[in-house]
């Protein structure tokens, strides 16, 4: 499943099983995505950043950066069911199923907050340098990775809510992917001008 967000709607697209190579599929006119539904985000203004999903309960968590909120969207009913307000440029978000928590990285302050996924009450926080951004969760290791500042990825223990490590980088990690099996992070780092 792929989620695409604009500032007013959440669009759900589902990929089909494809038995063709990219070239063959393009030539045959096969559709890769099928529009399932669009869900309005009526109280959201400004830019949306990262999104995560609770697949079991079909809940999507949308970091509404320009709105300074996290929007909770129920995919079954197709509507917004809650919102966490008072954030400061929320960018990264992760749903932590093991602890029934939502983790939100705030770009404005660098604060990363833990929230109970049912009550939406804050359960803890960690302060990183400014521009806390993209987030990845490794369920097997129960660790959260957060790109932040002018060049670092913080490693946070999801159970204790404590930072347990830091990976220094040469510049801000705009995006990254976790490959838990290979024990690697693939990081998109902007090169500085020569």
Brief descriptors of the model:
four-stranded antiparallel sheet, 4% helix, 194 residues, 17 strands, globular, 1 helix
SSE diagram, text form:
Layout: E1 2-5, E2 9-15, H1 22-28, E3 33-40, E4 51-54, E5 59-64, E6 69-74, E7 79-84, E8 90-96, E9 101-106, E10 111-116, E11 122-127, E12 135-138, E13 143-148, E14 152-157, E15 162-168, E16 173-179, E17 184-189
Structure summarized in a few sentences:
With 194 residues, the chain is mainly beta. Helix content is 4%, strand content 53%.
What this model shows, in words?
By secondary structure, the protein is mainly beta. 4% of the residues lie in helices and 53% in strands. It has one helix at 22-28; strands at 2-5, 9-15, 33-40, 51-54, 59-64, 69-74, 79-84, 90-96, 101-106, 111-116, 122-127, 135-138, 143-148, 152-157, 162-168, 173-179, 184-189. Strands 4-5-6-7 form a 4-stranded antiparallel beta sheet, with no helix packed on it. The N and C termini lie far apart (40 Å). Residues 14-25 have low confidence and may be disordered.
Sum up the overall morphology in one term: globular
As a percent range, the share of strand residues is over 45%
- The chain-level structural class is mainly beta
Proportion of helical residues:
under 10%
Number of strands: 17
Helix-strand topology string = EEHEEEEEEEEEEEEEEE
As residue ranges, the low-confidence spans are: 14-25
Mean pLDDT score, rounded?
Answer: 87
Q: Mind describing the biggest β-sheet?
A: 4 strands, antiparallel
Rg from Cα:
18 Å
> Given the structure, what is the number of helices?
1
